[in-house]
Amino acid sequence: MNALLSIENVSVSFAQRKRLFGGPRASLRAVDDVSAEIGEGETLALVGESGSGKTTLGHVVAGLRKPSAGRVRLRGAELGAANRALAGRAIQIVFQDPFSALDPRMPVSDIIAEPLRIQGAASKAERRARAAALVEEVGLPVDALNRYPHEFSGGQRQRIAIARALAPAPQLIVADEPLSALDVSIQSQILNLFRDIQKRERLSYLFISHDLGVVEHLADRVAVLYLGRIIELARREDIFAHPAHPYTRALLDSMPRIGKGRHRKRAIKGEMPSPLAPPSACVFHPRCPLVQDICRTLAPRFEPLAARPSHLAACHFKE
Amino acid sequence: MLAFTLRRMGQTLVVLLVMSFIIYGLIGLMPGDPIDIMAASMPGVTPEVVAKLRAIYGLDQPLMLRYWRWLMAALQGDLGFSRTHSQPVLEVLMPALWQTCKLMISSFVLSVIAALILGVVSALRPGGFVDSFVSLFAFAGISVPVFWLALVLILTFAVALHWLPASGMTNVGDGGFMDQVRHLTLPVLTLMLANTGQFTRYVRAAMIETLRMDFVRTAWAKGAGAWRVVIVHALRNALIPVVTIMALSFGTLFSGALVTETMFAQQGMGKMIYDSILSNDFNLALSGLLFATLITLLSNLAADLAYGWLDPRIALK
Amino acid sequence: MTDLATEGALASPARAIEAAQSVWSLRWRRFRHHRAGIASLAILALLVLFCLSAYPLERYLNLDSNATDLLSRYDPPSATHWLGTDEGGRDELLRLMYGGQISLLVGLLATVIGGGIGVSLGLVAGYFGGRLDSFLMRLTDGVIALPLLPLLIVLAALDLTKLGFSSEFAHSGAAGFWRIVVIIALVDWTAIARLVRAATLSVKERDYILAARASGAGALYVMATHVLPNIVTPIIVALTLTVGRVILFESVLSFLGFGIVPPTPSWGNMLNNAQELVTTAPALAIYPGLLIFITVIAVNFLGDGMQHAFDPRSERR
Fold first, then answer.
1. Is A234 on the interface with C (CB under 8 A)?
2. Tally of structural domains, chain B
3. Which of residues 139-198 of B touch C (CB under 8 A)?
4. Fewest beta carbons within 10 Å, which of A115, B2, B74, B284?
5. Do B15 and B76 share a domain, yes or no?
């Protein structure tokens, strides 16, 4: 596979508040040594509960946060202060909350053309023309251009946010839970929009979601994140048909399916531990239904399954 | 709590040190210079003598060094000599400080009492007739120039009605307690009127806030008497932020005291600072300003600490 | 609320501009219900008109507001001198008008400059956070803790030649004017800075700002395009209140003799010789102060009205 973006051993730690009298600074590892690649035109879904570090990782890819360790490469070039302009054009981001995503004081045409304005890439007339084209591409009426965000519904706002992300003709869009704030009826419309755009523009997506159901319709590959670590990474069909990690299985089991209802046979017990004090060895062991002694003493390696080399998981008992 | 106290005290000390340096530097930028003034009073001095005097007093040294020397002396209680009073600065300062304390504390207490009454009464029915009237009064208090208020009071009570003396601290040959009170009445009244406005707004806002809270509503619902609810439940809770913010306004109060003392010829800190700057009494001006800063800083510190003690919910950062 | 329903409602393209204006027209409609605010606006307009009519009136009455005439000191009101004359035999009304121009101008300019300082510091502190934020906020706390008036007096008394200005400039009227503007601006930016910092903190993590940053936007761009326009409302209110405070500062400094230097009139320095006025011409002691009082109280009510109109929560009261 020809990698467009490669995430290499990325970690992000947040320093906690300093103690009053000395003492070591506690630090929170939101993302812990994560590596993954996204190919041209591919969608990699990043799945995990809240607190798994998926949004933080998305921010790192979008250049909003510097990784504490590791690097992100775009076509082999490391992203950093030196090529911010390049990254700003090539990677765009779409957020979860469509109400916070658009500046209430800007007309839609300015919002959509903003990336071009920031990059100084186009004249005012060119920006307007581009905004007009994009408004149509995302399925909004042309007269939306002169309106302000408060006149639009959540779904329409998300379309505007997508149009903005498309403005500089990016190669990768980080979509951070772009559907979860929307009504169910709108979700499928926006999901289809994402798919149509990908077909037309040969875009890659890093699609962040807590909902495997959404992922099933869009992803080429799925990475499951738990406590800042990728615990399973495989093609979509493999994840859904033969999940290897007990956590992935539990996620799949708790997913509502038409006809089956939501059966919680193997629902995950307990709460996600605090990332301030992650469990030792295998981080999933306190909640794992298959837990053995080895899980408490030895961290499983993240490695391919014997049956399918493209399918990686971090578990001593991967099937 | 102890750590918080210590850190706040440390901060206060640092601010005071920084301010002492800034004020020291500023005083040096004031017109005239002590040696020139000294030389002017000695006819026939030659420039050589002036230069020698400069060297003796260390005025040819760099600013940092002079400041350091002054600071070391000040820490040992030597604040220098007041040129206009021909006395050590401390001996001029202490009576002035006492006079200012009388003025500030009595007007502060009176404004707090007045503000509590007015604020509570107007918070009971926001938007009502009484509230509008109190609001107008409060805005007037905030907006009135203190010196002009003093002027109007003098015109009314001293010039027109002859009820009270317009200036000074005692009558010659009297100086009894009642005489002092009579002389303090107008200054205290001026300062009190000027402060009550802002204080009333604080009390009113805090009372409206607490009267909306659930526990107060519960008290009403349980059938507690109206005044009991207002006084015991609401006012007690509103008091903490209000008293804090009042103590924080001590700096403003001092500015008011300066004007008032000047208007009524009260020999307090404010008038002393004003006079010393007018007459180039550098040592006195410097120490006066520092004491004024110290007083404000200490009252702010006290307010902060009191807030921490009184309200355990405050997370002390 | 579905996409279709709202899409159907989007009809005329002209509505776009209406939408932008509707926020302000809504506020205007709410402001109009604040009677004190409306009255204040009218009073302020009249005051400005009053001050600006100085020159025409001077020509009309064929007077020179600066010409002293020691033979006609403290003349009572007459056909030529509508409010009488002052201690220099100059026309009181004209001097009130010209003095008002100075006082109002100082109020506006110092507010603009101090507001500029406060907005910049608040933006920088709030946006960048970290050590810079702690430093700037400690600085702000320090300045808030100071007794402002004594400090202003020192700053007003500084010898500008010692700061490297030419003696000619240091003693010019322009220097006196700008000195007041600058020193008041230098001490009165703290409230704005705190407000802007808090507002910036609440805005800076919004997704539209993250989106701009992901596109490579720098801090300056984000602050100018996204942060400031979204926090402008509370800034306007706070600046209005600052104007009132600045006018009070100017008047008290000028009154104490450290502000606008005569013969240039200002409402404050017209009361310079108040002690004399109280006995000889009490009316002259009233006019300037009354004008300051009316101006500041109108400005404060205006700010209150705007706060009321801009704050959606204030509907409940």
1. no
2. 2
3. 139-140, 142-148, 151-152, 154-155, 159, 166
4. B2
5. yes
